[in-house]
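Figure caption, in words: inputs first, then the predicted bound structure.
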Amino acid sequence: MTRLLITNALTVNEGRSRVQDVLIRDGRIHALGADLSGRSADRHIEADGRALLPGMMDDQVHFRQPGMIHKGDIASESRSAMAGGITSFMEMPNTAPPTTTLENLEEKHRIASQNAFANFSFYLGGANDNIETIKRLDPRQACGIKVFMGASTGNLLVDDPVALEQIFTHAPVIVATHCEDTPTIEANTRRFQAIYGDVVPVELHPSIRSEAACYASSRLAVELARRCHTRLHVLHLSTAKELTLFSDLPLEEKRITAEVCVHHLFFSDADYPAKGNLIKCNPAIKTKQDRAALLTALSRGVIDVVGTDHAPHTLAEKEQPYLKAPSGLPLAQHALVCLLEHVHDGALTIEALVERTAHAPARLFDVRERGFLREGYWADLVLVDLNRPTRVDDQPVFYRCGWSPFSGKTFRSTVVATIVSGHLAYMEGAVDPVPAGMRLEFDR
Ligand code: DOR
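Bound structure (DOR present):
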């Protein structure tokens, strides 16, 4: 299909919402206008006033390929993301083998070019011993360098201070960090093991992966970035205290930016008794006060981007005792409808949601011709019905792991259709079998 016409859509873009038509031709937005109904098209979607947003650009996902495809692979997880309105993703290096060489990075791109249902890029992983590889990276080859400043799933911890400083000094692209102080976490774990032995309750997860652990590591990252003039992006903030490290300057003036994730804006520590290990993740979900502060910071632009940290594990893995169960939640399929709850609640305007899910990631990573509804840009779009509820348990879960932490929830909105690079990839529950994702390009 080369021409797709969408009429009477409530487009939300660059701070403005208005009803208009969109003509897509050869993958790109050909025209935006008050009345394009006379234009010929191969397919027509009458939006009936429903919201048409630039697709979400998720700057943090774990799709598990290569090496852990029993949890998910690029096809299965990008399909679920796409069905949820995510049209581009940036994937993390803690696969097996880890993405710490340029060869492994290109291999992921090769797999994605044949299997991804959304547009894609991959992070190169920082390690204690790969500074020469990092220096050789072409800035257009990867979305960024991911540095685990705290240990999480996989073994990519950069705990050598010299290596860390070298990466912060020489990275040719944005450095995205996971910030949790591992010695603090290990000390907390030992303290609780002394009391509970091997049966530490999951409710203690936010006391183990504590506010102090997050703050110490995020502060170190910010200090290091200031000293080394690094373009730093701190991922998945989870505490109010860390917010003091960031500013609400306009994005273009910032050298240090921050991300928050869907689950840290939705769940709180009150959910551990019901959800248990299913919401065990790193960094941990903290208090209601933290959640409220993160939401306010997102609305005010202290936090720049919202991502998912989609990180699937099987139910069998999650059913192990707390200390053994892996951290991470599958989130991508319901991320957008979950975020739209904050719009329904009046905590976030829909224009701000579009800013933080699409415009800001596109600008922050210098993504070429995506993330906005602009003539000539790639047509990455999501059509949303804000008045049709999604009952999570009524839908198939597309993740390979087959479960969702949102089971039992009903969201007030529904993703009706997703368009990826001009391709109608999802419509009313039906997934087009053609993986239409393209490699993201960067204006760097
Ligand atoms: O909870 C998490 N899971 N946090 C991470 O940083 C990694 C992720 C995973 O890969 O499972």
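The first helix runs from residue 74 to 83.
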